Amino acid sequence: MRATLSHPIWFLLMCLAIARPAPAQPSGLVEPGLYANQVTSVFVGEEYVYCTVPVGLLVMKVPPADSPRVVGQLTLPGYAEGVYVCGKYAYVANGNAGLRIVDVSEPTAPKEVAYFKTRGYTRAVFISGKHAYVTEDWAGLRVVDVSEPTQPREVGHQQLGGSGEAIFVSGRYAYVADGYAGLRVIDVSEPARPKQVGYYDTPGNAVGIFVSGDYAYVADGGSGLQVFDVSDPNHPKQVGYHEAPGYAEGIFVSGRYAYLANGGSGLRVFDVNDPSQPRPLGQFNLPGYARGVYVSGNYAHVANKGAGLQVVDVSPYSALAASREGTRLNRFPAVSGKCASGEQSTKANPI
Ligand SMILES: [Ca+2]
Description:
The chain has helices at 8-19, 319-324, 333-336; strands spanning 41-44, 49-53, 56-61, 69-75, 82-86, 89-93, 99-103, 111-116, 121-128, 131-137, 140-145, 153-158, 166-170, 173-177, 183-187, 195-200, 208-212, 215-219, 225-229, 237-242, 250-254, 257-261, 267-271, 279-284, 289-296, 299-305, 308-313. By secondary structure, it is mostly beta strands. A hairpin with a 5-residue loop joins strand 6 and strand 7.
């Protein structure tokens, strides 16, 4: 069942990828890329872009202003929901098949080196330090020591009450978008004893999260973008929101901009220079269903269920554009942390 190009599912995916015409360019700003059309999540590394599709992991090359192409792929046994890449390893949240650890040092031949069987349905993973933080549907947060990636080892667990849709680790806290249960703040300073310290029941279905500075940005399903001041982690405080039409699934913040993967309504860009008043700047209508987004430089990489990986030129609304205006830039927190191997997953700050 391990990956080969001749696997019938891959064959179908590749046919879909090749056969579908490139989508029209929304707003004239898009470099559309189209691949393996059910992309469930995306992570941008230094040289390659990593996408999950239900049956596994794709390693892609995304040349600037050109269409992405798949250079490597691996079939996985579960439903691939999310991926985080650190050093030479990709960590895949693989549904009922737990956490899969894949050596991607040879991008054309990704190879599974270990897996960690969780007890529930694994939805999301975030790597920080030597730990993988894994959320599960109704089974909470697991802290897994991956200092030796071929021998993952659980060190701590905290039961949570929701569906564990997404996780972001910043400093000593893990922030979980816990589905209809809302936003949870977990103190992970003692990995063996993760402990919930703060909670906020968001109005909608919290499915995406990004933390930047003192603020947590939540993609809250039908309730759009919700912004929380988490400077006091014990008491997350809602400070701003924008309920755009659509279904908010994924969120990425870079500098003063927030990028929202907004389901059937494509990609939305907000100015969050004042986080209490997210100001909508623009919208990119995309084919399919925008589920996740990862911004690198001038490009937003959108995980799109139904229309593959969409690469959108967001240069009018990017930290790069802001830098030309002399605006102070924030680092990209998602990719600036030290990884298990001591390497960084991507350039800490490509600007
Ligand atoms: Ca809720």
